[in-house]
Design a protein that fits this description.
Layout (H helix, E strand, L loop, with lengths): L5 E6 L7 E10 L11 E7 L5 E8 L4 E3 L7 E6 L4 E9 L6 E7 L10 E2 L1
Antiparallel strand pairs: 1-2, 2-7, 3-4, 3-8, 4-5, 6-7, 8-9
Organism: Eleutherodactylus coqui
Keywords: Adaptive immunity, Immunity, Immunoglobulin
Protein name: Ig-like domain-containing protein
């Protein structure tokens, strides 16, 4: 039987100008260092009136990749003991509130079909 893996996003909702936006993705059912089930975790957002935007990714080995348009403002980190992945966005704008998702990448298909919202 395959492991039941779930992801849940928490963190502040609305953003005030120049504020730092922080979100947490809690992963249950797999280790963040498991390269098969948790090749990486991406952050994606949907702001009001916009489509989905990919923000960045942290791999099982802690390598990070960020969207070009957020370079210098975004940091993705993790705590493997807690099974949590964090995104921090400095100088956030109110229009960047929106809905933030985390999604896991797997070894067999870089994107899983499951995305989790907050």
């Amino acid at each position: 039987v395959a492991a039941q893996i779930s992801l849940e996003v928490s963190g502040s909702g609305t953003v005030k100008p120049t504020e730092t936006l922080e979100k947490t993705c809690k992963v249950s059912g797999a280790s963040l260092t498991d390269s098969t089930n948790m090749l990486g975790v991406s952050w994606v957002r949907q702001s009001d009136g916009k489509g989905l935007e990919w923000l960045g990714l942290i791999y099982y080995n802690a390598d990070t990749y960020y969207a070009q348009f957020l370079q210098g403002r975004i940091t993705i980190t993790r705590d493997t003991n807690k099974g949590e992945v964090y995104v921090k966005l400095t100088g956030a704008k109110p229009e960047e509130s929106g809905t933030y998702y985390c999604a896991r990448h797997t070894q067999c298909n870089r994107w899983t079909e499951d995305m989790y919202r907050n």
